[in-house]
Design brief:
The complex is a heterodimer of chains A (209) and B (740). Chain A is an alpha/beta fold and 209 residues long. Chain A has seven helices and nine strands; from the N terminus they run βαββααββααβαβββα. Chain A folds into two domains: 146 residues, Alpha-Beta Plaits (2-Layer Sandwich), CATH 3.30.70; 52 residues, Alpha-Beta Plaits (2-Layer Sandwich), CATH 3.30.70.20. Chain A has a five-stranded mixed beta sheet. In chain A, strands 2-3 form a two-stranded antiparallel ribbon. Chain A has a two-stranded antiparallel ribbon with strand order 4-5. In chain A, a hairpin with a 2-residue loop joins β7 and β8. The N and C termini of chain A lie far apart (58 Å). Chain B contains 23 helices and 28 strands. Chain B is an alpha/beta fold and 740 residues long. Chain B has four domains: 66 residues, Phosphorylase Kinase, domain 1 (2-Layer Sandwich), CATH 3.30.200.210; 284 residues, Rossmann fold; 176 residues, Dimethylsulfoxide Reductase, domain 2, CATH 3.40.228.10; 127 residues, Barwin-like endoglucanases (Beta Barrel). Chain B starts with 7 loop residues before the first helix and ends in an 18-residue tail after the last strand. The chains are: A alpha/beta (209), B alpha/beta (740). Bound molecules: iron/sulfur cluster (3 copies). One iron/sulfur cluster binds next to α1 and β3 of chain A.
């Protein structure tokens, strides 16, 4: 299988925003970036996480679209809404489990990551996964990723009760088979956080000033 | 008369920095360009391969260059948006002259050059040749760096030429030369993923050398352990196996402490030391007292961290040390590097696959620009300007009497001090923005305003150029051609992509024209940068940084060639010191014992907090280019003061509050950013911004006695909450020094 696949390894991300800057250079939406880089909590950590469209096998965004404006290509890439059909209801925006689509009023349609379809459909790598200096975003073959990485790629997610399979893979430690996202009940008091691994003051406890 | 001719807001209104947000031709589809040119990023020392899209002699976009082996298409945000410096509204397209009360007005090349020559003659006749100085930069190509050194010594006959690499690579270079006899990273980057332990000392790799990240992560995939030493938890440190949050200036504690433990536990290679090195006894003696407890007090970290670092580094089968400005920007910068390198030599792990060490070059041509003779103490081929044989060799190449070549001049900081006290009265600068990049910025601005005559060559009117009498419009990297030498010591070729706009000229043409007018037409009679390279090759022959076997064609055909490359059949030298053969005449590595000493200014009751300065990923150096690119300013718009919540609480400071960071020399008012990823005794402010947003208002003019690098990484400050400033500077756009 020499097909190219998209892999995300959050642990590699250095928050440089090269992906964000380069996304805006892709021809299908030049000038507008579709990738979201989440900063977890800057006060606590420098951890960041890139979010591209995961290109679900059975995309919720498309299922909930009353205008049938969101299409998946035969090669599994879920596209931005078809502009003439999009009615700006934002159903896709609220339903996507990964928070990907955005309704862009300026363009009068929902726009999102299309895996640089102009590039990936002709065998080129998407912009973000070409420039990413850390390899957090990588576009390569399954063999290559298995050969070069310690973790394993998974594309199966569980959101509470719902299972989602995606075209895009994420790298996880070897023992993990599926990413389980447990929903936190807002009513219950959240558990106290474990001692902060990234707080330098805690690392230096007991050291004389 | 180098005072500002009109108010700063007036100059900014005309010359920027303004933001360029839409590429030439608009945000249209990119695929209709006329040509795509394979070249390199103009910014940092990684010198990533990149392709620029050109339409109608305009750069309109970029495309990754995936075949270039160093970065394989990868780019940081600066490289991605670099093309936005082209077709920029602020671009200088004619020579300018200062007109009192009116600012800068266009002037023709002819009267501009005539005036410059007359002023050089006048000042040198009245005050001696050395009263006219030259400041250059490490973003210049090898050809231009070579030309500047020759211009200073032959056309101007001034001893006083130095460059902004003085703020970058000199500590690393001096240390490397002392120990190994060669000033270059010892290994190609392809050795990094093969190392089983990697020690990163004072290098914010993710932000300052982003492409190196993938090499590090690849090493970890292969099972390497990563040790990071930094007062801040940088994005690399977050994933380290051991992160040591060192107190600013305490690095030697860690290095000497590690070596102490390694010796005690037998984790050194006695055989290698005996066969391939000298001076280990003195080092062993020096580190004897650096017990983990003693060392930890100096480093300001728990002693266990030092023991753990030694246990990871000591017995490893292969290893790699990377260091950068974090340990180098100190009044003991050279000693910091020596102590770190001692760990490499004592382990015997150098000169083999997966074993070695590298300094991470900061500026685009940080490596090459320090070899071609624009340092105050060097001639081309990294030759020593005080060595009679070296002088004779270069005098012959240049066709001048040896005694006509001036001696050693002043390095950048003393040179600016000499301007301040009136010994130097005239200045030509190119590719250097000292009002932002030198320490003690208030002093620097004062100095510039004392110059009798100042010529600035640049493509944008930098904050420093505002003090000029004449500004000459030079060339962007993509408007000229030439070679640079990347972080690995790989010499690469930058292609000409477009020609300079308007009346702007290629830098080398400006310099050759000036030289001719100063009476040396024959010695600067080059037809092209390639011509200059041919002379540079000969000038480097037989030196440590030998380029004589390289041609532009060979460089191009091979995706770069590593020096030394002594003849045209030679493949170049990616890895130095194979077989334990070092660059000194005795072929050995020379250990240097190092003793810790305090920084020039330590915190006290009045100024109780450490200030350390550095960079962010979306800006480059003094920001002359990157503060003009809209999406880069959007990414990180103004400097902030990173402060630990514990310290902030003590001072009554909340996130986003405005704070005044104040040293004995000046202050900077910025917003506070509360982060637990910094030591509670230290704050950090990035330095890319000018005027009242310049971290260098606070830094100290202390320099290392050997390398003369300034101590950017340690100053004592106090911090207080203030109201949002509303003065005219604060009201400027953020890229010009305002705040929001
Ligand atoms: S990730 Fe969201 S936007 Fe992308 S296909 Fe799945 S549901 Fe649709
Ligand atoms: S380019 Fe890569 S490392 Fe940089 S922010 Fe994006 S995903 Fe993270
Ligand atoms: S600034 Fe450095 S890392 Fe970034 S693209 Fe340019 S050369 Fe590469």
């Amino acid at each position: 299988m020499t097909e190219m696949q998209f892999f995300i390894d959050y642990s590699r991300c250095i928050g440089c925003q090269s992906c964000v800057q380069a996304c805006a250079e892709c021809d299908t939406h030049r000038g507008t970036s579709m990738i979201h880089l989440e900063t977890i909590e800057r006060i606590d950590s420098v951890q960041t996480a890139p979010q591209v469209c995961m290109h679900c096998e059975d995309p919720v965004c498309a299922r909930v679209c009353p205008a049938d404006a969101i299409k998946k290509t035969p090669d599994g890439v879920v596209q931005s809404s078809l502009k003439p059909r999009c009615i700006a209801c934002s159903n896709c925006v609220v339903s996507c489990p990964f928070g990907v689509p955005k309704y862009m009023a300026e363009f009068e349609q929902m726009m999102k990551c299309d895996m640089c379809y102009d590039r990936s459909s002709i065998g080129k790598k998407p912009m973000c996964a070409t420039v990413c200096p850390s390899g957090a975003l990588t576009y390569t073959t399954m063999e290559e990723i298995q050969r070069t990485r310690r973790g394993i790629p998974v594309n199966s997610w569980k959101f509470g009760g719902e299972e989602v399979r995606t075209k895009v893979y994420v790298m996880v430690p070897r023992e993990v088979e599926r990413v389980e996202v447990n929903l936190v009940q807002i009513e219950t008091t959240p558990k106290p956080l474990p001692s902060d691994p990234y707080d330098i003051a805690l690392m230096l406890e007991g050291v004389e000033a | 008369m180098a005072k500002l001719p009109e108010s700063i807001p007036e100059i900014v209104a005309e010359f920027g920095p303004h933001l360029h947000t839409v590429p030439s031709g608009g945000w249209i589809r990119n695929s209709h360009e006329e040509k795509m040119v394979k070249t390199h990023c103009c910014f940092c020392g990684q010198q990533c391969g990149i392709q620029l899209r050109v339409s109608d002699n305009k750069v309109v976009g970029f495309e990754p260059w995936e075949d270039f082996p160093f970065n394989r298409g990868k780019l940081c945000p600066k490289g991605v948006k670099r093309y936005m410096q082209d077709e920029h509204p602020d671009r200088l397209k004619t020579p300018l002259q200062r007109v009192e009360g009116r600012g800068f007005e266009p002037i023709g090349w002819e009267p501009a050059m005539e005036r410059i020559v007359a002023e050089i003659r006048r000042i040198q006749a009245a005050n001696g040749k050395d009263a006219f100085a030259i400041l250059t930069g490490a973003s210049l190509t090898n050809e231009k760096a070579y030309l500047m050194g020759k211009f200073a010594r032959v056309a101007m006959q001034t001893a006083n030429i130095d460059y902004n690499g003085r703020l970058c690579m000199v500590s690393a270079g001096a240390a490397s030369k002392k120990v190994f006899g060669v000033d270059r990273s010892a290994n190609p980057w392809s050795d990094i993923p093969k190392a089983k332990v990697i020690l990163i000392a004072g290098a914010n790799v993710a932000e300052c050398a982003p492409i190196t990240t993938d090499y590090l992560w690849q090493a970890r995939e292969n099972g390497a352990k990563l040790i990071v030493i930094d007062p801040r938890m940088t994005p690399i440190a977050r994933n380290a196996d051991l992160f040591i949050p060192v107190r600013p200036g305490g690095d030697i504690g860690i290095f000497n402490g590690m070596l102490h433990v390694m010796i005690e536990r037998g984790w050194i290679d006695r055989q290698f030391i005996a066969e391939h090195t000298t001076g280990f006894d003195a080092v062993e003696e020096a580190v004897r007292k650096y017990t983990p407890d003693y060392a930890a007090k100096i480093a300001g970290v728990p002693a266990e961290m030092i023991v753990k670092a030694a246990a990871m580094w000591g017995p490893a089968p292969t290893s790699f040390l990377l260091h950068a400005r974090g340990i180098e920007h100190h009044s003991k910068g050279v000693d910091n590097c020596l102590a770190a390198i001692n760990l490499v030599v004592a382990s015997g792990r150098i000169g083999r696959e997966g074993c070695g060490y590298a300094m991470i070059t900061g500026q685009g041509n940080g490596q090459g620009a320090r070899e071609q003779g624009q340092k105050c103490d060097q001639l081309p081929g990294s030759r020593d300007i005080s060595n009679p044989e070296h002088r004779k060799f270069i005098a012959d190449i240049w066709g001048v009497p040896e005694e006509s070549i001036p001696g050693k001049g002043l390095s950048a900081v003393p040179l600016v001090e000499a301007i301040h006290d009136g010994r130097i009265k005239g200045l030509i600068s190119i590719c250097f923005n000292p009002t932002v990049s030198l320490p003690d910025a208030n002093f620097v601005r004062e100095a510039l305003s004392k110059l009798e005559f100042y010529v600035n060559i640049d493509f944008f009117l930098s904050e420093t150029a505002r003090y000029a009498d004449i500004v000459l419009p030079g060339s962007l990297m993509e408007e000229d051609e030439g070679t640079t030498t990347n972080v690995e010591g790989r010499v690469i070729l930058h292609r000409k992509v477009v020609s300079p706009p308007g009346e702007a000229r290629e830098d080398w043409k400006i310099i050759c024209d000036l030289a001719a007018r100063l009476g040396q037409p024959d010695k600067f009679n080059y037809a092209s940068p390639k011509d200059i390279f041919e002379e540079l090759r000969r000038a480097s022959k037989g030196s440590t940084s030998d380029y004589s076997g390289m041609t532009w064609q060979r460089i191009d055909d091979n995706n770069g060639i590593f020096w030394p490359c002594p003849d045209e059949a030679h493949p170049g030298t990616p890895r130095l010191y194979e077989g334990g053969k070092f660059g000194h005449p005795d072929g050995k590595a020379h250990f240097m014992p190092v003793e810790w000493r305090p920084s020039a200014e330590m915190p006290d009751a009045e100024y109780p907090i450490f200030l350390t300065t550095g960079r962010v990923v979306s800006q480059f150096l003094s920001g002359t280019q990157t503060r003009r690119i809209g999406s880069l300013i959007e990414q990180y718009s103004q400097p902030v003061c990173e402060i630990h919540p514990r310290l902030a609480e003590k001072l009554g400071i909340a996130d986003e509050d405005f704070v005044k960071v104040e040293s004995r020399r000046g202050n900077v008012v910025v917003r506070a950013k509360l982060v637990k990823t910094i030591r509670p005794d230290t704050v950090f402010v990035p330095y890319h911004w000018p005027l009242d947003r310049s971290a260098n208002n606070c830094t100290i003019r202390a320099i290392d006695p050997v390398s003369n690098i300034p101590e950017f990484k340690v100053a004592a400050v106090r911090i207080s909450k203030v109201d949002q400033p509303t003065d005219p500077i604060a009201m400027l756009e953020v890229q010009a020094g305002g705040v929001r």
